[in-house]
Every structure is written in structure tokens, then in C-alpha cells.
What does this fold into?
Amino acid sequence: MDNYWAEPDRGEANRVFAALADPTRRAVVHRLGAGPGTVSELARDFPIALPSFMKHLRVLETSGLIRTRKTGRVRSCELNRERLALVDDWLAAQRRSWEAHTDRLQAFTEERP
Amino acid sequence: MDNYWAEPDRGEANRVFAALADPTRRAVVHRLGAGPGTVSELARDFPIALPSFMKHLRVLETSGLIRTRKTGRVRSCELNRERLALVDDWLAAQRRSWEAHTDRLQAFTEERP
DNA sequence: CCAATAGTTATCCATAAAGCTAAGTATTGC
DNA sequence: GCAATACTTAGCTTTATGGATAACTATTGG
It folds into this structure.
């Protein structure tokens, strides 16, 4: 288990998973999959106040899942697919460890029938 | 965006993502990838009190990520890989929608060079 | 220039989350 | 049967999260 708690809250994966835990934020990620958008463009689809929505954007940004950039008075947001891949990687790691386990189990049962 | 907020907190995906948001719970999932274990066996690896740890197990169980079963005084836990696949599915859906978008974009740019 | 637009900051509030201790309930080994 | 084992339940505390409002700071478009 090699002391996982060494990362209290920093830790990339941690922030990414935490960001995806909220349905609003997952919806934003989904929406940004269809291309970039400005803050108010994105906010239109959600039944919450702008400042509340902005908080979600900030969480997404500090998690690295989105990147934003302000031009004039408009802030544009876009998805950062690499960060999403991080989740993929974690999943793959679980799968690998699971497979390794069943492999060992198989080897064992095959050795002594 | 078809009103995502119709699901306040029930909603399978929601609970799965929320469950994975905590590092302790992710570590448990990881550990269970190497095969089932009893509550105290699992708890040994973590620096928190047993009741606190049990809460995590309950969250994991109600999310469907693990299944548990009590035999005598011992409760055994095992990973439910299908639920983990749900995350995979979500990721795949994002990728699909992203690809669809870039495809349309490509088609457009190719049509009018 | 000035009004509308697009964010941003600052507070505040309610609830949920993660942790703890203490005490309780079954099971099991001797 | 009785002590140790293996959880469970109950209650409490602290902090984080998700939401709101009000007021503020740029940028435009006309």
C-alpha cells in the first residue's frame, strides 16, 4: 500500500477524481468535449448562479482537467484531454494488478492440479 | 445537456465517482484488486480508526464498487469489477463525443479547403 | 462617454464528509 | 460459560463543499 496518505490533497490523481465527483463538473467536461466555450456560454446550461458555477470551473482548472484563457472581458475554457487520460491510466493500473493476481492464481492451480 | 440534475445524488455513476474521490477508498479498491479480504485485514493498512474505515467500506458498497458478505463474525469484501467498468464507459463516451466533434471539424475543413 | 456585458470578489449559510471515542452485539476458541 | 475477537452503532467535532447574494472591476458597442 506504500503510504498513500503521504499526499493529503495535493496529488494530481486526487484532484482529478475529486473534480469528477460532482455531476455539474462532469457535465462541463462532457460539454467541453464538443469544443471550447466561454464562461457564460457554458453557464447557460446550468440552473445555478454564475459565481457558484465559476467555482466549479476553478476546481476543474486546478485539477488540470480544463485550461482557460481570458481575452478582453471573455474567458474561454477548453478540455485538457491528457488529464482525463490520467483516470484511464488509474483504471488500467487496477486492471493490470487484477490480471496479475488471476495469473498467479492460475499458475498456482495449474501447477498442482 | 438533457437535465443532468434530475439525479440529485442517486444515479449510479454519481455514486461511483464520488466513492473514487477519496484516496483511502481508491486504495481499498486497489488492494481488493489483489483478491478479497476481511474488514480488519483491509483496515490494517490504514492509519484511521476502524469505525471511520467502515464508513469508507459502506460508501464503496453502496456505490456498488465492492460487494461484502458476513460469515459468522467476519465480513469479507471483494471488488466488483463491473462497476469499475462504468467509469471506463463514461471515459469512452467522452472520447467518442470528442472524436465525433473533431470528425465534423475535419469534414468541414476538408469540404472547404 | 456611458450603459450594457462578462467576469470576479467577498461573505455567508446549510449540509455533507471524514475523522474520533465509547459503548454495544454477535461469534468463536478454549 | 466466558474472554477474546470482529465488527456495529451512536453521538460528537471539524472542515470542506455547493449554493446564494451583493457589490465591484474591467471591456466593449453605440
Notes: The longest strand of chain A covers residues 66-71.
